[in-house]
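Think of the structure tokens as a kind of shorthand, similar to the way a musician reads notation: each symbol stands for something richer, in this case the local conformation of the backbone. In the example below we present two proteins back to back. Begin with the first one, reading the sequence and then the tokens, and try to describe in your own words what changes along the chain.
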Amino acid sequence: MNIQLFSKKDTKPSIWSGGLTYEYIIYPKTAIYADRDFGFRISSATIEQTPSEFTKFKDYHRYLVMLDNDLNVEVNKEKKAYEKYEIMEFNSDDEVTSFTKGTDFNWMVSEKISDRKLEITNSNQNCNAEIAIVFSLDTTVITINEKPYHLETNDLLVIDNHEKENVMLLFSSECLFGVLDF
């Protein structure tokens, strides 16, 4: 099992059509974002202009959570509204237009990975997924098998557990918690 902590302050911005994007992780490490050959990618983006067209990615499933604002979007010409921290789930090939400025959490997962889930939780989790992610919504401590990890707001913890060991996670506050199996 490999546990990695990715700090928001260590991410470097790239430009997208609506603002800036900060990549935490692309998996596998050898994948290239522009080639669209990754299993999953986790980033946070700013939406600085409205309306903004979300980047389309064929064959990817996407989870998006606004971190500082509600979200008003059109998905394939249908108006939708999401509250702060509400999970928006969509096909990354959909036509999505945002009418809201703010900062988001963005998890793109290849459609080849069908066993995936994202939720907001502060409940302890017993997990044996191949990959588990924890994204802190506030300063928090995540204890994994009795070892504490201190996360600042918008930090990411990734547990690479291909051996599928049983892992106990204890949350001190609400976080985004995602799992996937290949």
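Once you have a description of the first chain, move to the second and do the same.
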Amino acid sequence: MTALIGGSEITRADVEDFLYAEAEILDAWKYDDWLALFEPGARFEVPATDWKGESPFESGSYVTDDWDLLRARVKRLKSRKAHAENPPSRTTRMISNVRLREDDEPGLLRVTATFIIHRARDGEFDAYVGRYDHLLVPGDEGLRFRRRRAILGHEHLTAGARLSFIL
């Protein structure tokens, strides 16, 4: 599938390459490179596991970062003060079922995909599954996130589960 956004043709392969590159960046803990994938003013959201599609502000969320909070999150994760991730978890991300969708707002590309993130930390091995619902903006430097949303497929998180890494 292809989408025509602002006169630019974007293919599913273009979007897959963008998402795969992001996964590689996150698994390598290169947070400055990850932040560069966002346009200024972007949002990062991880709704609660009982989210039904309403506003994340009305239903509760694990993460609802505006641009300033997103930059602060990256700064904290890069510091030694991020005790929950010092040393960092070992993660491996798999992304599939990438789909391009039309968005109501001109110039935006809505992208959905599924994910599995395997995480090893403190002798434990966890799997996080879910789907992405992103808004991407094409530009001269390639695709950028306007909104990055990770929706967990879990009914609930187990006691002691930590979301101290980026989903």
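Compare your description with these statements about the second chain. The mean pLDDT is 88.
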